[in-house]
Amino acid sequence: MPGAINIEPFRTEDIVPFLELASAENWVAEPWEFEFLIAVFSQGCFTARGENGKTAGFVTSIRHERSGWIGNLIVSAEYRGRKIGERLFTSAFEALRFSGVETFWLTASKSGQSLYEKYGFRSIDTIIRWVGTGRQRHTLNGCQNDKSISNMIDIDQQAWGDRRAILLTETAGRGRLVHDKSGFIVIQPAATAQQLGPFSAFDSGSAERLFDDATTAVAFGTKILVDAPASNRSSLRLFNRRKMKIAGSNSLMYAGKKPDYRPELIYGLATMGSCG
Question: How far apart are CA 230 and CA 222, in angstroms?
């Protein structure tokens, strides 16, 4: 029987063990995300560690202005069944609560929903993972400046009911931003694929133009990933018309104050389920 498990702060040297564990579970995760999360909300990121120093599990969280996200909750197979996942989850949950968060978000697999429901989370939507390929016809020559970032943040705030400036600025900075006054889409590297997100638009026509501009700037045959809310019916029609395939889904859940959530504006999340 393994010895006692301690819940400790997530450190930079924990990134590689996390990525190894995530890879074994076929998760899409990149080092930048953990460097970013540790930098902006280190008090909400935790590692479960045995007496011998071996890592048993991880969780991260991030705070926006009034809301926060819990993500990357994973426990090594040899340590499961000992409530380590629950201890990690409650550590992140309490860190966000202590920081003054009003609305708490996460995405949950079917197996994880009962744990979160125990702490007051309820389902508000389903997040579908779509997979496609690039259709490159041109090189992207988009510009990024303070005005375009500000417009991106304003549109996103209307979609999620909170200002998420730090996350959006980070993702736009590491990716390629395509935007106009009606919406935006960021093309981000994600392992051997390209992620489309964050991605929001005021109407389906704008979303279609942005999506086509982005996918035709991604090399032929390169895998494209998008995580989108199922209740956005326009996104379902768009991705089906573009012959994207569904690769899985998770429940989008929240606790605390009910958010001013407008899924009809959301076509792609900013990260693969861990930050919203």
Answer: 24
Q: Are 96 and 68 in contact (CB under 8 A)?
A: yes
**φ, ψ (nearest 5 deg) of residue 228:** -135, 150
Residues 87 and 174 in one domain: no
Q: Which residues pair with 184 in a beta bridge?
A: 179, 200
Tell me, yes or no, whether 273 lies in a domain: no
- Helix, strand or coil, per DSSP, at residue 57: strand
Selection from 109, 254, 134 nearest residue 190 by Cα: 134
- Do residues 135 and 80 both lie within one domain? no
Question: What three-state secondary structure class fits 236?
Answer: helix
pLDDT number for residue 191:
84
Measured in Å, how far apart are the chain's first and last C-alpha atoms? Answer: 37
User: Could you tell me the residue range of the domain that residue 38 belongs to?
Assistant: 5-101
152-178 pLDDT tens trace: 999 999 999 999 999 999 999 999 999
Q: What pTM, to 2 d.p., does this model score? A: 0.95
- Among residues of the chain, what percentage have pLDDT more than 90? 87
**How many residues are given for the chain?**
276
Cα–Cα distance for residue pair 96/165, rounded to 1 Å: 17
Q: How confident is the model at residue 122 (pLDDT cuts 50, 70, 90)?
A: very high
Could you give phi then psi for residue 166, rounded to 5 degrees? -65, -45
Give the Cβ contact number of residue 85 at 10 Å. Answer: 20
**276 in Cβ contact with 198 (< 8 Å):** no
Domain count, the chain: 2
Q: Which tens digit of pLDDT belongs to each residue from 66-110?
A: 999 999 999 999 999 999 999 999 999 999 999 999 999 999 999
